[in-house]
Amino acid sequence: MFIESLLDIEKIISQNRIIFKFVYNGNRLTDLKMLKTIDLMKGVLKSLYEHEIKNVCFVFVVDSLDMPANINMFKEFANMFHSHVDIIEKKLDFTIIQSNNGIFKMFFSILKMYYQPVKPLYMSESNESTERCLMS
Fold first, then answer.
1. What is the spatial distance between Cα 11 and Cα 21, in angstroms, rounded to a whole number?
2. pTM for this predicted structure
3. Residue 56 phi, psi (nearest 5)
4. How many CB atoms lie within 10 A of CB 123?
């Protein structure tokens, strides 16, 4: 049985930095899809341990994200980052979360309850402001 992820992942190299761009693809949020997404994210985090990778930033584009019924999935998502905090501190420059969705702002508040960022975390409402942040 094939389970879809909630995020499409792009890897972009710009200004001596790898940008991992995670774009919510509009799939309906379910526990299984969230677990699949967490597995994919774990793969990205494990790739940070590669010696060749020095500077990274994450961009999450989540304009149309719905709230899941199971809030514990947020905690699972945050715990995934906690288990890789050593490499995040070394290689992650910053994270941008791009959303113009009011529901997402609630998600962001919940996420911050479980995840204390170890590197700067920026909010953006458009592609233009995200690009400006990436170039600065």
1. 6
2. 0.85
3. -140, 150
4. 15
* pLDDT (tens digit per residue) in 31-59: 888 889 999 999 999 999 999 999 999 99
Work out whether the CA dihedral 119, 125, 126, 129 comes out positive or negative: negative
With CA atoms as reference, report the closest residue to 74 among 1, 3, 6, 4: 6
Distance separating alpha carbons of residues 130 and 61, to the nearest angstrom: 10
Task: Give the chain's end-to-end CA distance (angstroms, integer).
Answer: 43
> Would you state the structure tokens that stand for residue 134, as one six-digit string?
């990436």
Q: State how far the Cα of 60 lies from the Cα of 7, in Å rounded to an integer.
A: 9
Q: Among the residues of the chain, which ranges form H helices?
A: 31-47, 72-82, 85-91, 102-114, 127-135
Residues in the chain: 136
Decide the pairing of beta strands 92-98 and 7-14: unpaired
Task: Report the alpha-carbon distance of residue 85 to residue 118 in Å, rounded.
Answer: 8
